[in-house]
Design a protein that fits this description.
Strand content: 35-45%
Structural class: mainly beta
Mean pLDDT: 74
Largest sheet: 5 strands, antiparallel
Strand order of the largest sheet: 1-2-9-4-7
Order of helices and strands: HEEEEEEEEEE
Helix content: under 10%
Distance between the termini: 87 Å
Low-confidence stretches: 6-25, 136-178
Radius of gyration: 24 Å
Shape: globular
């Protein structure tokens, strides 16, 4: 590499560090963050933040959430995402995932080598990018037991119970009778 190329690379690196001071985060062992950009959006009070996050094999990014949406693009390896209220999903290079505002989640490198994601956040400006999840969920089912002695309803959702056929399942049920 020529001397001018080395100087140019060093200059660009130092400008990048100075341009993104508010993006510096403590890095956990085995997790490597490269902050790429932070820009205001046309929506008042919102900004976009892009970060390249690399995980060494077996590393877990502990349970946390963000003050906005996260759009994930896996750039390398295999990562398992465990979102609160959903079954775990494993993404490989080229796969994407949307994580809604405030949803607690953790990420595990389940590959044999280094894995990485490009994380794009659309977040509230001035709030922390990453918020550790509380040890106990904010509310669990026992918090909703009726304290006045009434029976608690046992709700079942449609996707948990197969539906029984009815007359409305027939194509002719909606036709006018002759």
């Amino acid at each position: 590499m020529t001397t001018s190329r080395t100087l140019a690379t060093a200059l660009l690196a130092s400008v990048g560090v100075l341009a993104l001071p508010s993006l510096s985060h403590a890095q956990a062992a085995g997790i490597h963050r490269t902050d790429l950009q932070r820009e205001d959006l046309s929506v008042p009070g919102r900004e976009v933040v892009q970060v390249l996050v690399a995980f060494e094999p077996g590393i877990v990014a502990g349970n946390h959430h963000h003050n906005g949406e996260e759009i994930v693009y896996v750039t390398e390896g295999a990562l398992e995402y465990r979102l609160e209220g959903r079954a775990p999903v494993t993404l490989k290079q080229g796969d994407v995932l949307f994580i809604p505002y405030g949803v607690n989640h953790e990420v595990v490198n389940v590959g044999t080598g280094r894995s990485a994601e490009l994380a794009t956040y659309v977040v509230e400006k001035g709030k922390p990018l990453l918020v550790p999840a509380p040890k106990k969920p904010v509310a669990d089912a026992s918090d909703f037991d009726d304290m006045r002695g009434s029976k608690r309803l046992d709700l079942k959702f449609a996707d948990e119970v197969p539906l029984k056929p009815t007359i409305f399942d027939s194509a002719t049920a909606w036709e006018d009778e002759p």
